[in-house]
Amino acid sequence: MPPKKVTSRSKAKSTLPPAPVAPKSGPWSTARILNSTSPITQKDIHSFLVRAVSDWSTSYTEDEKRAIIDSLPPRLRIYDVDSSCKLVCPVTPDFVLGDPHVKAAIPKFKRQVTEGYYEKGWQKRAMAATRERVDGRFDAYLQEQVDAFFGGDEDDEEDGGGGGGGVTGTVEDVASSDGEWKGR
């Protein structure tokens, strides 16, 4: 007989317990860990990850293991079990020790935490700026980035004031190696 379909209206309960949720307050709350004054930026996160993976079978309950696997990128969400039906860690200590992406991500994460990118206020401002940019409005930061990338104001280019473009003259003066620009 096929399993009973569970809908939002049915009273049937899931066989799996709900995944652990990050505490809203206390020493392990997201607000405490992911803010610009967080002590996590001074910790050795790489060693912590190696230890967490190495001690997988003894340090976590099956529910915690499932929650950890659920939080991994899709390609690493592997729910293999060993001979005693315990979840096996989908990441090896050698992977954490040697993967260049993991090594690069840790200092980037620390820098982002230090700069406040995970704080609610910053997230709200970033979302608002994104909506404004989608609507075609520039803010001071974006205008600064555009000016830096494309060489600044036109006034700077006319007087040779270091606009950053590096090219002066007209299109006719520029010779292309494939000849397509000449005479346009």
Automatic annotation (TrEMBL):
Signal peptide: none annotated. InterPro entries: ASX_DEUBAD_dom (IPR028020). The lineage of its organism: Eukaryota, Fungi, Dikarya, Ascomycota, Pezizomycotina. This is ASX DEUBAD domain-containing protein. Residues 1-12 have a biased composition (Basic residues). Residues 23-151 form the ASX DEUBAD domain. It comes from the Eukaryota. Residues 1-33, 151-184 are annotated as: Disordered. It holds the Pfam family ASXH.
